Amino acid sequence: MSLTQQISLPNGVKYEQPLGLFINGEFVKGVEGKTFEVHNPSDEKVICSVHEATEKDVDIAVKAARAAFTGGEWPKLKPSQRGQLLCKLADLFEENVTKLSSVESLDNGKALALSRTDVTMAAGCLRYYGGWADKIHGKVVDTQPGTFNYTKHEPIGVCGQIIPWNFPLLMWAWKIGPAIATGNVVVLKTAEQTPLSALVAAELINEAGFPPGVINIISGIGRVAGAALSNHMDVDKIAFTGSTLVGRTILRAAADSNLKKVTLELGGKSPNIVFADADIEKAIEWANIGIFFNHGQCCCAGSRIYVQESIYDTFVEKFKERIRKNVVGDPFHGDTFQGPQVSKLQFDRIMGYIEHGKEEGAVVEIGGKRFGDVGYFIEPTIFSNVTPDMKIMNEEIFGPVASIAKFKDIDEIVEVGNATNYGLAAAVHTKDLNTAIEVTNRLKAGTCWVNCYNMLNTALPFGGFKESGVGRELGKAALANYTQVKTVQINLGGLG
Ligand code: NAI
Ligand code: MG
C-alpha cells in the first residue's frame, strides 16, 4: 500500500491524505507491513487504510524520539525558539483550518462547525503553550549562609501520548503543546477510529520546522501499539485520555515496567444541577450544550440533569421542545448540530444503554431510537424519572442520552451529585451567589461551571477528582506534569 491517497471530501475539498507512520520527520510504512481500515461513520463506508504501528514501530519511534532528545538540534534550542516553533504550528493550523476540519468531520462525523472550532481551539492551545516555553522558572531557596540552592524544572524526556477519537485534533494539541513547550519529545498514538487528521497535522510539523524525531505520530491499535508504548522501558512519561478501564491498564503497565510518570484524563458522569431560581431558558440552552454537544461524546458531558422539584415538570417540557430543534444529519450540512456516533461499536454501546433504560422503567421523553438507516446516527434522547440505582444514571454512556431526575434542596443534591466514583465536572444553574458558591465548594469535581456548561479554556486547568483521572491538562497546571524538579545545593563553605 502506498503512503498517500487522493481523497475528495463532500464539501469539494480535495487533498492528499498521508497514510504512513510519521517517525523521525518522515512518513514510513510499518515494519510488519500491517494496515487497518478507516471508516466514515456517516455512511459506514471505508475511506482508506492507514499503516499500522506494531511493537517494533513503537520501538523505532521511541528510539527516534530519544535520539532527538539527547542529541541533534532540539536540546540546543533556546526555550524561546521552542515557543516560536509552537506558534508557527498554530499559524499553520489556522491557515489549514478548512482542510483540517473537513478531514475531522469525514473521519469522526462531527458537524463541520464543531470541527472548525476544534481546529481554532487547537491552534490557540499550541500558541498558548508557545508563550509558556520561555517562562519555565525554578527558584533560588535560601536555607543558610554559605550555601546557594536552586531548583530547575527540567523536561521529563520521551513522552508517550495516547489520545481518543472524540476530539482528535484538539487532544493532539492538548498533549503536544505542554510537552513541547517544556522541552520534551513525543511519540503520540492516535485512536484507531480517527487517525486521519493527525497525519495531516503531522505534515505541518515538518512545515513548521521542528527537528526530526521531536514529534512522532503513529496510527495503531490500543492493545498493540498503545500497550507497547505504555510498557516501553525507554518511555519516561505517558499521558492518556480515554476510558477508565484502559486508564487502569496504563497505570499497571507503568508500575510493571519502568515506573514512568502517568497522567490520565478519564471518564465522567457529571451532574448538571438546575435550581428553581435559575433563568430556565438559559439553563435549558446550557443543558443542551452540556449533554448533546459533540453527540454526547464528551468526557465532561452533563449526563445527569437534576432539576429542583418545583420547576421539574416545566423544565422537562421546555427541554423536550428545545431538543426537538437540534438538527441531526450529515456533518457537512450547514444546519447540522449532531452527526453520527464515531463507530459501530459506540453506536451499539449507546443503543444498549437506551434499551436498558427502557427496561429499567425510565420514561423516554423523546428519542430512544436509531436515526435513519445508514450511518451511526442516534436520536437525541431524554429519559425522565431516572432513579439513582439505574444503569443510565451511573455509567458513562458517551452518547446523546440525558437522564433527568428531581431534587429537593442543597443537602440532598450535594449528596446525590457526589454519589459517583467519577469527579470530572459539575454545573450549577442559579441566580443566588450563595447557592452557587456553597454547591460548587461541596461538589467533588475538577471543573465546576456556574450558569454555563462545557466551557473549556486553554488557560484553565482541566482534569478529574476521584476515578476521573490523575494530573491536570491545560493552564499552567499542565506544565508540572511535563517537568521534573531538580534541586541543586551548593556548599559555599556553610556546610563545612
Ligand atoms: P479506549 O480507552 O479504549 O481508547 C482510547 C485510546 O486508548 C485509544 O487511542 C486506544 O487505541 C487506546 N487504547 C485502548 N486500549 C489500550 C491499551 N490496552 N493500552 C494502551 N492504549 C490503549 O476507549 P474506547 O473503547 O474508544 O471508548 C470506550 C469508552 O471510553 C467510551 O464509551 C467512553 O465512555 C470512554 N472514552 C472516554 C474518553 C474521554 O475523553 N475521557 C474518550 C474516549 C472514550
Ligand atoms: Mg472514522
Beta strand count: 21
Content of β-strand:
15-25%
CATH topology type of the largest domain: Aldehyde Dehydrogenase, Chain A, domain 1
Report the top-level CATH class of the largest domain.
Alpha Beta
* CATH homology superfamily name of the largest domain: Aldehyde Dehydrogenase, Chain A, domain 1
Computed over alpha carbons, the radius of gyration is: 23 Å
Number of domains: 2
User: How far apart are the termini?
Assistant: 69 Å
Q: Helix count, per DSSP?
A: 15
How helix-rich are the residues, as a percent range? Answer: 25-40%
What CATH architecture label of the largest domain applies? Answer: 3-Layer(aba) Sandwich
| Largest sheet, spatial ordering of strands | 15-16-17-14-13-18-19
Q: What ligands does this structure carry? A: 1,4-dihydronicotinamide adenine dinucleotide, magnesium ion
Give the averaged pLDDT, no decimals: 98
